[in-house]
Structures
1.
Amino acid sequence: MNRKWRIPFNRPALMGREIEYVQQAIEDGHISGGGSFTEKCQNLLKDSLNAEAVILTTSGTHALEIAALLLDLAPGDEVIMPSFTFVSTANAFALRNARIIFADIRPDTLNIDEEQLPSLLSERTRAVVPVHYGGVACEMDAISELCRVRGITVIEDNAHGLFATYGGRYLGTMGKMAALSFHETKNVTCGEGGALIINDPSLISRAEIIRDKGTDRSRFIRGEVDKYTWVSLGSSYQPSDMLAAYLLAQLEKRLEITRKRSLLWNRYMDGLDDWAVGNRVRLPIVPDGCRHSAHVFYLLMPDKVSRDTLIEKLRRKGILAVFHYQPLHLSGMVKESFECPVTESVASRLVRLPLYFGLDETEQDSVIGEVRNLKL
Ligand SMILES: Cc1ncc(COP(=O)(O)O)c(C=O)c1O
């Protein structure tokens, strides 16, 4: 699909040792889950994020599904999340028969509006799921405090923000659990993959059981039990060690990846700042105290018509720019009504520009030039 575009929206980059490591996994004879590359990725993530535990999963979606299973939700229990997110954030909890309560987003960071949360809480609220949009942190102090005093679990959807920080703490380490995604479009990728960060030690062994088809297989492998059996609900959430091998090669280059993406993100900012001001276009806002992951560079256009015009104009020049989430509260799956005016406005006006490790500066200058040519 990428070949169609002079400048695609995303192009996954090989960072050097992917093929070598995959070959090694094959030669080691361990291509199912839970091999040495899985172990290395988990340890690298745990140590570099300073997390309690990390388990690799087959996707970010599946990490969220494990988190939802760990909540032991009863039908009708409520889970609050932004409407402006990927469908998996909601689906994971809906699969457990939770009632999803959609919050609106802040106009600046496009993250869940923490000031709206108190009005959405009820006796049945079991969890809040902040989504760090574009790898820019949600207001975690306010969210954590609100949930702490009421015994509500915070589960971070950190699909976008690996290695980003909030007040010096890594995103994904502030909630009880957090989901990461290594989908092809993410900063660090293995095609399809994810991880669950577990910051509450009491959940680690149950999380392993859920990941291992509801069995205590991990304990059996560690020699803690002499056979393994069915002990809880679970599924097959363990990625192949070949994927973990690919992922390790990427994780080892995490600083290089972040550096390059940040450079490109800043070049977009510098190249478009004055044009944006003059054309009523809003560029991303990163609050003080947050270091973002340079995952998304978006333009918030004045209206839907100008957004669609820009996408079409870039398309004609061979440049793929794309919009993002459709408001979940307006989807056919949601029967209740929710007030999320910022979400609705943003979803119709947002466009993301190409941003990937291999994007070179000449290509990026061409994107900037084409955007600047748009007369509003
Ligand atoms: C906010 C958010 N959460 C969860 C996911 C799901 O991740 P995955 O594609 O790895 O299942 C995505 C995917 O893009 C996402 O954007």
Note: The longest strand covers residues 53-57.
2.
Amino acid sequence: MAQIFLTGATGFVGRHLLPALVQAKHSVRCLARTTANAESLQNCSVYIGDLLQPQLWESAVMGADMVIHLASAHRGTPELLQRTNAEGTTRLIAIAERAGIKKFLYLSTLTASPKPRWPYAYSTWLAEQAIQQSFLDYTILRCSVIIGRGDPFLDGIIKTAQHWPVVPIIGSGQTRFQLLDVRDVVRCLLQIVQEKRFSRKVLSIGGPQALSYEEIVNSVLAVLHLRKRKIHLPRPLARWLVRRLERLGVRTPFAPGHFLSRDHCAESLSAIEAHFGFIPTAFHDTLKNLY
Ligand SMILES: NC(=O)c1ccc[n+]([C@@H]2O[C@H](COP(=O)([O-])OP(=O)(O)OC[C@H]3O[C@@H](n4cnc5c(N)ncnc54)[C@H](OP(=O)(O)O)[C@@H]3O)[C@@H](O)[C@H]2O)c1
């Protein structure tokens, strides 16, 4: 069984992945930014530190067989995204190379793009480039929006549906998503950890259906037995409003995924079946499992 250095263990995907790694009898060393966050991490060793302060956790990478890199920033200034996602990953790669890590697994996004006008997409693309140009044996798993217990995307739609008098649809509502159940992502990650055939591959995966944002909202309303009026908000106005509120310290139910204008789909609806040999959970089943 492998010795794994895991970043981002306290995040949404990390909270689902860590117990699965432990159950599969892997020995896990987690990076957490604060001791308060680290309290939720069970059956693993914890190293407290920031991705950008490698002196605090470098020793944890030494002696590990594998790195699973989930730590990232989704919101914030372009500088923060660049520092955390691109620079943070580059520092981790340098240490992983020095430590002779056998496998480096990076969970990326289908939105990764070489265009600097999309700072998050650009920062993850830079991270991917650094990994591919390194001496490491890597696997990059590019995912569509991931949903499940604790995810900010579906949770945001559910909260507005439950508590707001009208349900906002950002933009035309026609952007399509191949929503992916976090349990399926964990299954894919475990296969990558355990099998050699994913070596030096970049794989793009999504769920089994491509649904428009408005179809997703309609399904949520149906499952919750709610009848609410929907209003379309122009994307720039909604983004401006959310940014202003967040700057004033007001938390909104909106995650960056709600503002996407490009489709968020893999090349094929059967990518998981083709690469990992199982049929991923349909959106309605994930939704019913949650509510
Ligand atoms: N969720 C999705 O829909 C989705 C879709 C495609 C790809 N991905 C990718 O999957 C990965 C995991 O996503 P997620 O949804 O689990 O993200 P998340 O919930 O936002 O968690 C991010 C994690 O990164 C940690 N982190 C952030 N900045 C850090 C820093 N400077 N130093 C150390 N740790 C830091 C956070 O620590 P704190 O707990 O201290 O904040 C947290 O553990 C990311 O690479 C993301 O791009 C996610």
Note: The chain is about 40% helix and 20% strand.
